[in-house]
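Protein modeling request. Please complete all fields; requests missing the sequence field cannot be processed.
Requester role: graduate student
Desired output: 3D structure, token encoding
Chains: 1
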Amino acid sequence: MTTTAEFFEDTKSATPRCDAEIEKLRKHYPILTLTVVFALARKLEMELIQSNNSIVDLLNQIEAIEEKNQQ
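Delivered output (71 residues):
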């Protein structure tokens, strides 16, 4: 289970979209609101990155199988 500290301070992830949006919105919303919203957004962005990587891996595997079957 993810601890509260890990949930809000995920320093291992690279989330450029979220980071850029935080900087834009910092002047307009309370920091606590931004912290909660973007903690969730960062998690979703990381899941999206992982999903995209899985799709690319699967496509590469399909291409390799197709090439093998053509030989």
